Amino acid sequence: GVSGAVEYREYYQDAMGCIEELALYLKPFSGGGAGNNSPLSRPMQRKLVTLVNCQLIEDEGRARAMRAARSLGERTVTELILQHQNPQQLSQNLWAAVRARGCQFLGPAMQEETLKL
To answer: Which of 25, 29, 35, 36 has the fewest Cβ atoms within 10 angstroms?
Structure first.
């Protein structure tokens, strides 16, 4: 009915408002200079561009937007964790993960060395 259409329009406008607000993070910092002046990492920029380009009017576009938003959220958490871990801890965690996976992505010589750690 009409009330459903009004409700969906409100959801659409809310979602677009949020996406537009996030899109502002793609604008470069002022001050010029060479290189990447964005506050976001390259992977975050790519994920945000994917989200911004989703067509929320279409069902498939909304589904894509949800996947893109989830991916962006996961990357955000990953980068926050990395930012707050010291390099020594990061290295220990990496090697623990390598050992936990049974060294399945290393060659035989590297597996032997890793298992000695």
So the answer is: 35
Q: Bin 102: left if φ > 0, else alpha if -120 < ψ < 50, else beta.
A: left
pLDDT tens-digit map of 71-101: 999 999 989 988 887 888 878 888 888 778 7
Alpha-carbon distance of 72 to 22, in angstroms, equals 11
Instruction: Report CA 5 to chain centroid distance, whole Å.
Output: 32
Q: Which residue has the tokens 């920029």?
A: 45
**Six-digit token pair at 27?**
């604008």
Place of tokens 């060659």: 107
- Give yes or no for a contact between 23 and 48, defined as CB atoms under 8 angstroms apart: yes
